[in-house]
Specification:
116 residues; globular; mainly beta; 3% helix; single chain; six-stranded antiparallel beta barrel
Length: 116
């Protein structure tokens, strides 16, 4: 799934980094059981002299998932090593950068083989 991440609130310094486009690389669950998406940026983003290729995103709204027809407010966590963003990760081991708005650009549809 392709997304555009735009700035929403919580950190005006981080607003300069956004908007960015990218792809949902995979879904992961935190130790609290929350579902997050590992968002791979099309091009690295620099923030406070560190280059990031990935962010972790989670909807801030109850019962609203990332990837719907309408934009979704999200938490944005900075990922320095994408290997650390795996099932069972601790949210507190990542820096919360800001709140963003995730807009769906394109949904990827699986092509199933034609029955013979």
């Amino acid at each position: 799934m392709r997304l555009r991440l735009e700035y929403y609130d919580h950190n005006e310094h981080f607003a300069r980094v956004l908007p960015v486009d990218g792809t949902v690389a995979r879904r992961v669950q935190s130790t609290a059981g929350d579902e997050w998406v590992l968002f791979q940026l099309d091009a690295p983003a620099s923030y406070e002299n560190v280059s990031y290729e990935y962010f972790l995103l989670r909807s801030r709204w109850r019962n609203v998932e990332i990837g719907g027809k309408e934009p979704t407010s999200v938490f944005v966590l900075l990922v320095t090593d994408q290997k650390e963003a795996r099932n069972g990760f601790d949210v507190h081991s990542f820096t919360h950068a800001a709140w963003g708005m995730a807009r769906t650009l394109q949904r990827v549809r699986l092509k199933l083989p034609t029955p013979v």
